[in-house]
Every structure is written in structure tokens, then in C-alpha cells.
């Protein structure tokens, strides 16, 4: 592998002022560059966040249903 091939895989991040191998983007949430070394962790974090939001929504809807049942208000009109 010559030096020109290796240099094409490395890009400079203007936010961090560092060069990152396999640079994808700079994540403003984590404040880090997403590249070759942490791309799978980044995708895992995103998947976990979506799953946690889904579970929170289900728990919230269950709580609303319980509150409606306590007050004898139909949750769904059948």
C-alpha cells in the first residue's frame, strides 16, 4: 500500500482539528468524530436510543390506559 492510498482514507475534522481514519462525520451530541474506530459503537448507540424511546412510549401509553380505566373513561371507543 503506497502513501497516496492510505492518505485518501484519512480526513481532517474541522471541529476537533484532528485527522481521523475512515472519517464519517462529527457528532454534535457526543462531541466526537465518527470514524473507523468507533463507527459500530455509534450505530449501536443510535439503535439503543430508538429502542429506549419505543419502550418509553409503550410504558407511557400503558400508564395513560391505566389512568383512563381508573376514571371509568373508555380508552378506545368500541
Question: Which properties best describe this structure?
Answer:
78 residues; alpha+beta; two-stranded antiparallel sheet
Characterise the protein shown here.
- The chain has about 80 residues and is an alpha+beta fold.
- About 50% of the residues lie in helices and about 20% in strands.
- The protein has 2 helices and 4 strands.
- It has helices at about 5-10, 40-70, and strands spanning about 10-15, 20, 25, 30-35.
- It has a two-stranded antiparallel ribbon with strand order 1-2. A two-stranded antiparallel ribbon has the order 3-4.
- Strand 1 and strand 2 form a beta hairpin.
- It is rod-shaped.
- The N and C termini lie far apart (about 70 Å).
- The mean pLDDT is about 85.
With helices defined by DSSP (H or I, 4 residues minimum), what is the helix count?
A: 2
User: How does the overall form come out from the CA principal axes?
Assistant: rod-shaped
Radius of gyration: 23 Å
Low-confidence stretches: none
How are helices and strands ordered from N to C? HEEEEH
Overall pLDDT metric: 86
Helix content range = 40-55%
Summary, kept brief:
The protein has about 80 residues and is an alpha+beta fold. The protein contains two helices and four strands, in the order αββββα.
List the helices and strands and how they pair.
Elements: H1 3-8, E1 10-13, E2 18-21, E3 25-27, E4 32-34, H2 39-70
Antiparallel strand pairs: 1-2, 3-4
Amino acid at each position: 500500500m503506497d502513501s497516496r492510498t492510505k492518505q485518501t482514507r484519512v480526513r481532517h475534522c474541522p471541529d476537533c482539528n484532528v485527522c481521523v481514519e475512515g472519517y464519517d462525520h462529527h457528532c454534535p451530541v457526543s462531541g466526537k468524530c465518527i470514524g473507523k474506530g468507533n463507527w459500530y459503537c455509534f450505530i449501536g448507540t443510535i439503535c439503543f436510543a430508538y429502542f429506549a424511546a419505543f419502550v418509553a412510549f409503550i410504558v407511557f401509553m400503558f400508564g395513560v390506559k391505566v389512568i383512563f380505566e381508573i376514571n371509568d373513561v373508555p380508552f378506545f371507543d368500541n
